[in-house]
Write a structure and sequence with these properties.
- The complex is a heterodimer of chains A (345) and B (289).
- Chain A is of the alpha+beta class and 345 residues long.
- Chain A folds into 2 domains: 3-61 and 71-210, no CATH class; 218-344, no CATH class.
- Helices cover 33% and strands 20% of the residues of chain A.
- Chain A is built from 12 helices and 12 strands.
- Chain A has an 8-stranded mixed β-sheet, with helices on both faces. Chain A has a 4-stranded antiparallel β-sheet with strand order 5-4-12-11, with no helix packed on it.
- In chain A, helix 8 (233-240) crosses helix 10.
- Chain A is globular.
- In chain A, 43% of the residues are buried.
- By secondary structure, chain B is α/β, with parallel strands linked by helices.
- Chain B folds into 3 domains: 18-111, Elongation Factor Tu (Ef-tu), domain 3 (Beta Barrel), CATH 2.40.30; 124-245, Rossmann fold, CATH 3.40.50.80; 249-289, Dihydroorotate dehydrogenase B (pyrk subunit), domain 3.
- Chain B is globular and about 50 Å long.
- The chains are: A alpha+beta (345), B alpha/beta (289).
- Chains A and B meet through strand 4, strand 5, helix 7, strand 11 and helix 10 of A and strand 4, strand 6 and strand 13 of B.
């Protein structure tokens, strides 16, 4: 795979030269209604001076609400109430400027949405139709702890290409055949020089060095499910937790969903909507019995899922990428880093 | 213990149900809350694709209402239809209970693992059921009694109990099994009822009376939590190890394929890694079911 240089002044030319390849558009980081988002916009609006998008970009592949199946809901109609696949298929799109932690989250979710037996077509089709060019973090946030959870500010897994901001220019490194294909077709690129690569390395070391928070997880791995489950510290975590679910809303790896049907004017759809493990209804049986009946069991589930269950089931992959959004937004200041330290203590 | 039912679900959309027609509805219990639905595939090729084993479940899918995970009560040895016995408890089951013969609905599956029947060849089986949890065990017994399978297994003992005679499912079938000499059936109700000539007593008590020697025997247990709680010590006293006790769990589900995140018990998804677990496995897991 090859490395290229793109002058920032040539960014618009770069984007425009690729626009024809991507019928679903070229998305990049833009400021919209006071929030950083990844969205289609004129290349001049793309920003490189941001720390991360306000929300996780998981909705690129897992929208908050999504049509799964449709049906004719005319009573007595021919073929009525038979659920059919949605006709529209996702089209090719290019996403610029996604942060490496969020791309790593996609790599983790790939192993969940496509498991040994089943392929979730809604997630997987969109993943396949999308090319991701990441933007390395030269300046991580104070709440970032990516280097503790098997990723990092320049991490490459989940991306097709990675851009590093070298001041007035970007170093672009292709990482997959999909990424290489895009960079080959793009205009405005020149081959990278050894000094550019050396500068990128330097920036990587500096960025990694600013993330001083280090989490140990070796005991979590060694301890049994029951030992972690029955540990006393959950009593303290649950005292503060409101089960509000904002952590799950902003989390790039939280992927639980509900399925609901809607009928309007003779047309029916089956939808999937984001759901969250902090809700009592999430696990409530029809009989009224609830296997996770209280706040404690629900907040514990979230951390156990990310730091014990996913690693056990997905070859060690951790269900957290250290983006720190939940740390910033939790209304009662529950810090996932503290919880992991307690689990590992 | 492994199950032998893992199929290749990666080619098709695993969320799209097969269309089926309700061929017959049988009211099973006195209170009319349990009905058995006989479903026939609209497309013959779907029936071939729906290859299942006893213990697996499916999502019954009613467009406009939603889906419910229900154990498959028919046996794969019964061709041309599927059976599901459904208790009326919530929104979707209520809609289903209002549907008529001839109506169109959907079935998505088969889902989950099955009873490890391959590994149980050569063993004696003690099958214990309580209330309406008997469904997938009906599937198992029909499968075991099929001439192609019966000779591969040792002695089969079946204990089945319900509160009242009117709440026992599949009456004609267990009456027929009682006439056979290749299965010992003990059907019991909680207390005396006029006209009831069968056994009287709770399932754990009857199990203690008729329990075969634990050696080379495996127990398949399905029932309400209270029955399981009191049956477990009976089996332990009789010498059954946790590896010899096989159970089936249920939890709230949506996707049924190990993705949507709600039915887990520790790291195991009841929908995909289960619903069948040995007691030895469950002893390592939180009681979140």
């Amino acid at each position: 795979m090859a490395s290229y240089i793109l002058k920032k002044s040539d960014l618009a030319e770069f984007v425009e030269s690729l626009a024809g390849e991507f019928p679903a558009g070229v998305l990049g980081p833009v400021l919209k209604d006071g929030k950083m988002v990844l969205a289609a916009a004129a290349p001049e609006e793309f920003r490189l001076d941001f720390q991360n998008t306000t929300l996780s970009p998981k909705d690129l592949f897992f929208p908050q609400s999504e049509k799964m199946l449709e049906f004719d809901a005319t009573p007595g109609g021919e073929g009525a109430f038979i659920l059919e696949d949605v006709k529209e298929k996702p089209q090719r799109r290019l996403v610029l400027g996604i942060r490496p932690c969020d791309a790593k989250a996609f790599a983790v979710l790939d192993t969940i949405f496509t498991n040994d037996q089943y392929r979730d077509p809604y997630w997987a089709d969109k993943r396949e139709a999308t090319t991701l060019i990441g933007l390395a973090c030269n300046d991580p946030c104070a709440t970032c702890f990516c280097t503790s959870v098997d990723t990092g500010p320049f991490y490459e897994e989940g991306l097709d290409a990675l851009a590093v901001d070298l001041g007035d220019k970007l170093l672009l490194k292709s990482l997959t055949p999909k990424g290489e294909e895009v960079l080959n077709k793009a205009k405005g690129l020149a081959p990278a020089k050894a000094e550019d690569e050396a500068r990128a390395q330097e920036l990587q070391q500096q960025a990694e060095a600013t993330i001083t928070d280090k989490l140990e997880k070796d005991n979590i791995e060694k301890r049994s499910v029951m030992e972690l489950f029955e540990a006393p510290h959950w009593d303290e975590v649950q005292e503060r937790c409101l089960n509000c679910g904002v952590c799950t809303f902003v989390c790039p790896t939280c992927h639980c969903f509900d399925i609901q049907d809607e009928v309007q004017s003779g047309k029916g759809v089956r939808l999937r909507n984001w759901d969250y493990c902090m809700s009592w209804l999430f696990t409530q049986h029809g009989s009224g019995h609830n296997p996770r009946p209280d706040k404690k069991s629900r907040v514990r589930q979230r951390f156990m899922h990310k730091f014990k269950y996913i690693p056990m089931k997905r070859g060690g992959a951790i269900g957290c990428v250290g983006c720190g959004r939940c740390v910033t937004l939790c209304p009662v200041n529950i810090d996932v880093r503290d919880v992991v330290r307690e689990m590992n203590a | 213990m492994g199950c032998t039912c893992k199929d290749e679900g990666r080619v098709k959309n695993p969320y799209r149900p097969y269309p089926v027609r309700i061929e017959q509805i049988v009211v099973e219990t006195e209170d009319k809350n349990l009905r058995t639905y006989k479903l026939v595939f609209l497309k013959p090729e779907d029936e071939a694709a729906f290859a299942y084993m006893p213990g697996q479940f499916a999502e019954l899918s009613i467009a406009g209402a939603g889906e419910i995970p229900i154990g498959i009560a028919s046996s794969p040895t019964e061709k041309g239809f599927l059976l599901f016995t459904v208790n009326k408890v919530g929104a979707v089951t209520t809609v289903l209970h209002n549907m008529k013969e001839g109506d169109i609905m959907g079935v998505r599956g088969p889902l989950g693992n099955c009873y490890p029947l391959k590994d149980l060849e050569g063993k004696n089986l003690l099958i214990i059921a309580g209330g309406f949890a008997v469904t997938t065990l009906r599937s198992t017994i029909v499968w075991l009694l099929d001439p192609a399978h019966r000779s591969k297994y040792g002695k089969i003992t079946f204990v089945y109990g319900a509160r009242t005679p009117g709440s026992l499912l599949y009456k004609e079938e267990w009456e027929a099994w009682q006439q056979r000499d290749d299965i010992d059936c003990y059907i019991t109700v909680d207390k005396e009822f006029p006209g009831w000539t069968g056994k009287v007593g709770f399932v754990p008590t009857v199990t203690a009376e008729v329990c075969p020697p634990a050696e080379n025997t495996y127990a398949l247990v399905c029932g309400p939590p209270i029955m399981i709680k009191f049956t477990q010590p009976v089996l332990e006293k009789a010498g059954f190890t946790p590896e010899q006790i096989i159970m089936s769990l249920e939890n709230r589900m949506k996707c049924g394929i190990g993705i949507c995140g709600r039915c887990n018990v520790g790291p195991e998804y009841v929908c995909k890694d289960g619903p069948v677990f040995t007691l030895a496995q469950l002893n390592q897991l939180p009681k979140e079911y």
